[in-house]
Amino acid sequence: MRCPMSGTLPFAVVPDPRAIDPCLVDDLERAGAQVSEAVPLAGLTTLRVGGPARVLAECPTTASLIEVVRLLDTAAIPVLLLAGGSNVLISDDGFDGVVVHIGSNTIRIDDSIVTADAGAEWDTVVAQSIDAGLGGLECLSGIPGSAGATPVQNVGAYGVEIASLLRSVELLDRATGEVRHTEPAELGLAYRTSVLKHSDRAVVLSAEFELQRGGSSAPLRYGELARVLGASDGESRPAAQVREAVLGLRRGKGMVLDRADNDTWSAGSFFTNPVVSGEQLPAVLAKIVARVGDVTIPQFPAPDGTKLSAGWLIERAGFEKGFPGIDAPARLSTKHTLALTNRGSARASDIVALARSVRDGVATAFGVLLEPEPVPVGLAL
Ligand SMILES: Cc1cc2nc3c(=O)[nH]c(=O)nc-3n(C[C@H](O)[C@H](O)[C@H](O)COP(=O)(O)OP(=O)(O)OC[C@H]3O[C@@H](n4cnc5c(N)ncnc54)[C@H](O)[C@@H]3O)c2cc1C
Q: In UniProt terms, what function does this protein have (predicted)?
């Protein structure tokens, strides 16, 4: 069989719509991808749920990533970009298109600038920057996944967000097929979101961070972390010391991946902290007081209102760690109510059912709608 040239893939005219088109395989392989068929996606995600990808194209380099996505976009074939799989919830039906697995992983450090390929493991980027005597990323230690996904949801932890360190992002613009550099200001980075999240507009090819020489951390702004380090608000400590403290705190909450610990078979925090408008706030606070009494309610100023703590609301709505109990395949983490976890045999439908029950319980108790943080693929809450 003679395959047509790249860009004219006859995906839609294959007689069996479930079968892989040999011409598609040829084109993707010529572009540098390793291609397989009907690959279960559960093994590529930290929640370890999700049905098969019709086709998996593993792209080991930036050049192959660009070429593969261009080919698929030209042929209007559905694409799911996947890197560490730590911020997705994929349906049990899987993905009926091509999952592009991002494997480019070069990290370059030049003076105070760190540039990482999209597929570089994020925690390796953090560790290497600290080893090179640079401060800034230490509070973001232990976050699973890739460097390329960090701008997608403006990754943040312990008082630091990627937005404050990002210098530029190299993107493949999927509308034009062009590769270009963008300023962080163009990305709409906000609390756990950006214009790239829930969007097919671009592929992050690499990200560049501007850090501080001298080995000191950024000023510490997170009370729990500052206390562990015996620091006052705004003080710095050696970046390596802060990294160890962050990793220790995260391990205690099941927030560092550990294959042997089911509390870490999660997507991290499943819900974002809700932001309540000035208008809504009095009614929400009244409901909280009516239910749990006159307690100190964690609340923080946010650009569009007041940010409440999702974990605190979940617990006060009556969901304890480990909910709904020992026999359930999907449970709240036994260390952290904000993480929904797979105890070994959960399917995506179990995670969805648990998420709905927590979200609805909080809405009924306090009139606050929790929004999921991971990106749903082929399903909705
Ligand atoms: C135990 C645990 C702890 C966590 N703690 C934190 C935390 O403290 N703070 C935090 O912010 N997050 C946290 N997360 C969530 C997650 O680790 C981050 O969001 C991470 O950046 C996701 O990276 P990834 O490579 O796994 O992305 P994936 O899950 O592979 O993808 C996530 C989304 O980004 C898209 N995407 C991925 N790569 C690219 C790219 N190169 N270009 C365009 N789109 C892309 C995907 O299509 C998908 O929509 C945690 C997760 C776990 C499991």
A: Cell wall formation.
**Closest ligand 1 atom to Cα of 256:** 1
111: Cβ–Cβ under 8 A, 6 or more apart, which residues?
Answer: 213
**Using a 6 Å CB cutoff, which residues line ligand 1?**
46, 81-88, 102, 118, 143-146, 148-150, 152-153, 155-157, 196, 203-204, 255, 257, 264, 266-268, 375
For every residue of 43-65, which 3-state class applies, written as one string?
A: HHCCCCCCCEEEEEEEECCHHHH
CATH ID of 107-252, from 3.20.20.150, 3.30.465.10, 3.20.20.70, 3.40.718.10: 3.30.465.10
Average pLDDT over residues 66-85: 96
CA of 206 to the centre of ligand 1 (A): 15
Find the distance separating the first CA and the last CA of the chain, reported in whole Å: 44
Over residues 39-67, the pLDDT tens digits come to: 999 999 999 999 999 999 999 999 999 99
What residue segments make up the domains of the chain, in order of their start? 11-102, 107-252, 262-377
Answer yes or no: 373 catalytic.
Answer: yes
Of the candidates 54, 192, 331, 347, the residue annotated as catalytic is: 192
Please name the fold of domain 262-377: 3.90.78
Class of domain 11-102: alpha beta
* pLDDT tens track for 162-177: 999 999 999 999 999 9
